[in-house]
Design brief:
- The chain is an alpha/beta fold.
- About 50% of the residues lie in helices and about 10% in strands.
- It has 12 helices and 5 strands.
- A 5-stranded parallel β-sheet has the order 3-2-1-4-5.
């Protein structure tokens, strides 16, 4: 792990794993020293189709961050960081007549989460740092490259629990050249041996909310239990979801 880290970003999905990372940052001094020793920002990219319980938890996180002086960004579709043709999950499907399926590549996470956060990050750097920005070849990501050359890699904390190492290995295959240059993607829960149960136990032990597992309402990767819940609590959404699953 790099020691030169001016900036740490917590990519907050609002599920139990990322909630545990935020709790560790707040309650564990050794965790802060190791993973976020300097500037720390929490960011949540909203797909426009999150579970109501996810939105409730996001509101609680927003209030807590205000109270504790933690910089928190809730990237909503109307803020300009989402791509026009990927404004929300519903808009993408309705406008283009697309069908999301497990049989197709999972582009929604990249378009509605990952790329939105990178667009925000470039904007955030321009607003907060007076740095030269000559890297025209990187187009919209040029401010990130310029920042890294002055201050070192940006650490991105990702909430993937122990036992899910295959997800990390798969993600590494798709790393772009610029992200390898600029980002230090870190998986503290794997480092610390926190599986999902241990995450839940830790959240309870420090008096934190154990949030609902984060997932879009119309996610084609929903399991049978999630579909049953959707059919009972949101029958109209369930009927529409069947079109896309």
């Amino acid at each position: 792990m790099s020691t030169k880290t001016e900036l740490t970003i917590l990519s907050m999905g609002m599920g139990q794993d990322s909630a545990t990372l935020l709790a560790l940052y707040r309650h564990d001094a050794e965790f802060r020293k190791k993973y976020a020793p300097k500037q720390f920002v929490v960011v949540f990219s909203d797909t426009g189709n999150e579970h109501p319980k996810t939105y409730e938890y996001a509101e609680a996180v927003d209030q807590m961050c205000v109270q504790e002086g933690i910089e928190f960004w809730w990237l909503k579709p109307d803020m300009g960081f989402h791509y026009p043709n990927w404004h929300t999950l519903d808009q993408q499907m309705d406008t283009h007549g697309t069908v999301f399926s497990k049989a197709f590549p999972k582009s929604c996470t990249d378009k509605l989460k990952v790329q939105v956060i990178y667009r925000w990050l470039a904007h955030w750097i321009e607003q907060n740092y007076d740095i030269e920005n000559p890297e025209k070849k990187y187009r919209g990501k040029a401010p990130i490259v310029a920042f890294v050359r002055s201050f070192g890699k940006i650490r991105i904390l990702l909430g993937i629990a122990a036992g899910e190492e295959k997800r990390v290995a798969k993600a590494k295959k798709s790393y772009s050249k610029w992200s390898e240059i600029c980002l230090e993607k870190s998986y503290p829960l794997i480092d610390l041996g926190f599986d999902r149960q241990r995450c839940q136990n830790y959240l309870r032990s420090v008096g934190e909310i154990v949030p609902w597992p984060s997932c879009c309402l119309k996610c084609p990767w929903a399991n049978l239990q999630e579909l049953l819940w959707l059919s009972m609590d949101f029958p109209e959404v369930y009927k529409l979801s069947l079109i896309h699953i």
